TrEMBL record:
It comes from the Bacteria. Residues 41-169 form the Nudix hydrolase domain. Keywords: Hydrolase. One of its GO terms (molecular function) is hydrolase activity. InterPro entries: NUDIX_hydrolase-like_dom_sf, NUDIX_hydrolase_dom. Belongs to the Nudix hydrolase family. NudK subfamily. Its cofactor is Mg(2+). It comes from Algoriphagus limi. It catalyses: GDP-alpha-D-mannose + H2O = alpha-D-mannose 1-phosphate + GMP + 2 H(+). The lineage of its organism: Bacteria, Pseudomonadati, Bacteroidota, Cytophagia, Cytophagales. This is GDP-mannose pyrophosphatase.
Amino acid sequence: MDNPWKTLKINHKYENPWIKLEEHDILNPAGNPGIYGKVHFKNKALGIIPVDSEMHTWLVGQYRYTLEEYSWEIPMGGGLIGQDILQSAQRELKEETGLIAKKWTQIMRIHTSNSVTDEEGFVFLAEDLIQEEPEFEETEVLQIKRVPFLEALDWVMEGKITDGISIAGILKAAKILGL
């Protein structure tokens, strides 16, 4: 489908190592002028659902500064645009849980909030696991929990997991795993 929007001018408002905020002067699909805010992410969002031979998975709990609340999520992080997403996902899984997986399957591509951001995410199913020690980053104070996969699915359905990538990834993995 052709783009019904016309960009007249892009005003750069703010930038840091992770995001860039732009305000676009536009003509909307009806031809009327307006503005559109866009958050550009400098990383790909990566989520990993590790599943062991006993059908357990790992969740990561942490305080999320932007929400001002504690959040349970699948292991996740960012991979620089242009870097291999699988290698970045492997690094994130090891950092946050200490897990190394021998089998990786990309199960999802997702846009996290496509009305205001161009962030693109990918979710992987990680299997055939080896447990080592986590390698947390300095910004991470994480609680790691190994739970039956069906319990993680229950947490999604009960609203205990609210992160969008985690919800979508767990639901997709449940379907793939036949649960």
